[in-house]
Write a structure and sequence with these properties.
single chain; about 350 residues; alpha/beta; six-stranded mixed sheet; five-stranded mixed barrel; globular
Length: about 350
């Protein structure tokens, strides 16, 4: 008799992949992942990989540290496999309530806004750099607030960059975020010197980003591309290099990690800037009020006296009494509540 096709039991044992190479994901497009292997080492190379079946549906994002097997030589027309995603220290995510205002930031699969899922835009980032203009277009504080909520919930620090300060005085905008202790960089164009941006602002921002993985977000027209080109002078060439992912086309819906120029001769870079041209807002359905509160070390202890289920917005909230006894400032509490309102779209 012919043996049954199911006579061989399935094994739950999975290979250890002890010889896997570690890679840093710099671009994602159409199910292909561009990974930098042996970063800053003598054998640094770019490897194109696909997802191994054993990973299931777990998403891979720009910034992920992954383990690769197969052909990891980086030679032309070779393909490795991603078999493991290392633990993330931070995640910049968005939810389904971005359906109207946002397109996918990684190009990896269907838009989660259409399916109701969350989407990890960038993994393992240290800073979220929010770029806004002082004028033309006018600043949108609601967008800035939602970006801050996404940063706090994801474990990132925030930096606010105000461009086009030569067109309007940004003092009021900067003052609105003083109580949130957000680092602020103000830049202006130097037309007389023939420069797109003043050297001082670029140097100040580059120092903040040095040695870190930073994500830049901003609406169209605020000067984000100009800023990226100032930080990474060969940004266009670097983008062309990673565009070999998938079908060799880099579109505006893809996040790309660009290397900051190195100060030391022996180093190839001094941090990474992730440009996310497709991200125009953040859906925050996955964020709770307590997620935001955890970023406020001066206010969080006072929440222990709040009633169960407190949204920290109503009269029953214990934070008012906590602040009144001198543990924080009323301005700081007001800024915290403004962010909570922005999470629901009412701020």
């Amino acid at each position: 008799m012919r043996p049954s096709k199911r006579s061989r039991p399935r094994s739950k044992i999975r290979p250890r992949h002890s010889e896997a190479a570690t890679g840093f994901v710099v671009a994602v497009n159409r199910g292909r992942y561009q990974c930098l292997v042996d970063e800053d080492g003598p054998d640094e190379r770019m490897v194109t990989a696909m997802r191994a079946r054993e990973l299931g549906r777990r998403a891979i994002a720009v910034g992920d540290r992954v383990e690769l097997v197969g052909d990891t030589s980086g030679d032309k027309d070779t393909l490795a496999r991603v078999v493991r995603i290392n633990k993330r220290r931070s995640e910049l995510r968005r939810s389904a309530d971005d359906a109207v205002d946002t397109v996918s930031g990684t190009g990896d699969g269907p838009d989660p806004a259409a399916s109701g899922a969350e989407k990890v835009l960038v993994a393992n980032a240290d800073l979220l750099v929010i770029v806004t203009a002082a004028a033309d277009p006018p600043p949108r504080t609601g967008f800035i607030d939602r970006c801050l909520v996404a940063a706090y919930a994801g474990g990132l620090q925030a930096v606010l960059v105000v461009t086009k300060a030569d067109l309007a005085d940004p003092s009021d905008l900067v003052a609105a975020y003083r109580d949130l202790t957000v680092a602020v960089v103000v830049s202006r164009r130097e037309r007389s010197a023939g420069k797109a941006l003043a050297d001082g602002a670029v140097a100040e921002l580059r120092e903040l980003l040095r040695g870190k993985v930073s994500v830049l977000v901003g609406h169209s027209g605020v000067g984000k591309s100009t800023l990226v080109n100032a930080l990474v002078p060969d940004a266009d060439r670097a983008t062309a290099t990673v565009s070999g992912v998938g079908k060799g086309r880099h579109t505006s819906t893809n996040a790309v990690a660009l290397r900051l120029p190195a100060r030391r001769k022996r180093s190839r870079g001094d941090g990474w800037v992730v440009d996310t041209p497709g991200v125009r807002s953040f859906g925050l359905a996955h964020v709770t009020n307590d997620d935001v509160l955890s970023a406020f070390d001066d206010l969080a202890p006072g929440a222990a006296q709040c009633p169960p289920g407190c949204d920290h917005l109503g009269p029953a909230c214990a934070l008012d009494g906590y602040v009144a006894t001198g543990h924080s400032s009323p301005e700081r509490l007001a800024s915290f509540r403004r962010l909570l309102l922005s999470r629901t779209g009412t701020g």
